[in-house]
Amino acid sequence: MAKIQLDHVSYSYPNRGRPAEVLHDLNLTVERGEFVCVLGRSGCGKTTLLRLLAGLDLPTRGAVRIDGEAVTGPGTDRSIVFQSYTLFPWMTARQNVLFGIQQTGKWGRAEARRLADAFLRKVELAEAADKYPYQLSGGMRQRVAIARSLAMDTEILLLDEPFGALDTRIRRELQEFMDALRWRDGQAEKTVVFVTHDIDEALYLADRIVYMTPGRIAADLPVPLPRPRKDLGPAERAQRDALRRTLVELFDREEDAPCRCAADAS
Amino acid sequence: MPVRCRRLLIPHLFLIALVAAVLFAPKGRPGVEHWGALLAGVVVIELLFLTAVIRNRRRGAESTAPYDLIVFVWVLLLLWELYTSVSNLAHPVLVPAPENVFATFHEQWRTLLLNIAYSMQLLLVGFFAGLILAVLLGLYAGWYPRLRAFSYPIANVMAPIPAVVFSPYLVALMPTFRSASVVVILLGVFWPTFLGTINRVVGMEPQILDSARMLRPTNRTMIWRILLPYIIPGTVSGLKVSMTTSLLMLNFAELMGATHGMGFYVQNSITYANYAHAVAGIIVIGVVVTLLSWIVTKVQKKLIRWQ
Lengths: 266, 307
Ligand SMILES: Nc1ncnc2c1ncn2[C@@H]1O[C@H](COP(=O)(O)OP(=O)(O)OP(=O)(O)O)[C@@H](O)[C@H]1O
Ligand SMILES: [Mg+2]
Prior knowledge:
The structure holds two protein chains of two kinds. By secondary structure, chain A is α/β, with parallel strands linked by helices. Chain A has two domains: 34-57 and 156-266, Rossmann fold, CATH 3.40.50; 87-153, no CATH class. In chain A, 38% of the residues lie in helices and 24% in strands. Chain A has helices at 46-54, 93-104, 109-122, 138-151, 168-181, 199-205, 234-256, 258-265, and strands at residues 4-12, 21-30, 35-40, 61-66, 69-70, 78-81, 156-160, 183-184, 187-188, 191-195, 208-213, 216-222. In chain A, a hairpin with a 2-residue loop joins strand 11 (208-213) and strand 12 (216-222). The model of chain A is unreliable at 260-266 (pLDDT under 50). Chain B folds into two domains: 3-107, no CATH class; 109-303, MetI-like (MetI-like fold, Orthogonal Bundle), CATH 1.10.3720. The radius of gyration of chain B is 25 Å and the shape is flat. Classes of the chains: A alpha/beta, B mainly alpha. The A-B interface holds A 54, 56, 73-76, 78-80, 82, 84, 86-91, 99-100, 103, 132-134 and B 207-208, 210-217, 221, 225-226, 229-230, 232, 305-307. The complex binds adenosine-5'-triphosphate (ATP) and magnesium ion. Magnesium ion (MG) binds at residues 46-47, 83, 160 of chain A.
């Protein structure tokens, strides 16, 4: 059975006046252990899609199913990193991570503390563990949010441009760390839906790339490159470059005809 | 260095003028010959000023406030002294001389302290009972829509009614004056805080709410670990105002039918035409209010260190 299934999902924000449909009849299946990247231009509905998967909003039509069961709200089998870093401002970095871990109810107090520190170290924030969010930079806050999300060890990870505010080096390291976390005995265990603007990031991480135009899924491309993808052979590199060209073309095509998507959404 | 000296010079010129006025004032008015307490008071004020200056310098902050304030105090005392003891222009009974007021501090300190303690007891009980009850009920009413739906309209009607309006009635209604004062203060604090708490919970930032919802908190965790800390800064920032309002309400209530308390002391002194006592009482109330706000500010800083 598919881990995540979107079944004719439509969504409109409950606006006064005429509700505009932000997602229109989406169908998507994500298998267990799959890493799916969602690409698309700003405002095409990526965050909205992630909110539906999280259960923060419910589809106006159709259903989001996880392990075959319709989602009716947030669950501890899912964790999310929001596009705008959202920590609890009254908790220190460590308390934020710890609170997330404790909420899963999987570990005892001592173990939870150890895990929180381990994950903070992973995002290179061991020294900032006792600082409050207002004392951290945007990128540092985002790293705490990532640590919290990863430390919760949920089956499904939802990430909304998590690395946008980070510098290249730590970005690379976190990409690798996140990828490493998914594997157990050579088998990918965690299912990841990862929103990004960055084509190269998607090509580095994804098993599949979903390209969205406003309200719809315009393309669903598998990325059959071997892992790890740091040093690819020449043949594979050619394959990757071909994929990149396809994606760039998808972006460009929208650029030429920006009205078309709006027209067929109405 | 010369700048610092000049700063200290002006206040001290006024100080010398004041002391001279006190020492050489004609001894015509009643009680003016007992100037010991006044001079002791002047010494205490001067010491407070010097402490403030030293603390300021240690911190490296060169604030002009202590210098300006002390000049203000000396000038005020000097004018008062000139108007009463020195020139004898003022009405000898209605306007007491500084000597009389400071002598009151000396003679009546036990009575003053007792009355302060009495007022503070009522104030703190009423204030904290109102605050805690309002925050608790406000959190629950804010989080559970059904509770909110019925309590919100009630709070909207009750909150704007000033508690002093029904305090005469409460004084008549309640068995003792003490319980009446506590209830007046409690109600005065409760409704605005309750309403404010509900509003803060409902207006919670959507991102924080979403983050919290993703962690599937139980209602208990939600209320105690998310909502409570979330509303604390807003609640605490209103604390100083509500504390001062409470004291106002208490002193007002004490004007009718109390047998102890600061408001009673002032009222009673006026009834017996003992205006030196009345002025001393008013000054003491001012000092107490200042101390209370200072404490509240300290508490605020502690409670919201994460902002
Ligand atoms: N709370 C909301 N109420 C009404 N409309 C909304 C709301 N949030 C988003 N929208 C609209 O829904 C559409 C999709 O928004 P969404 O945030 O999902 O885009 P996105 O793909 O995540 O964009 P970006 O890459 O800039 O983050 C946009 O047209 C936006 O105006
Ligand atoms: Mg977005």
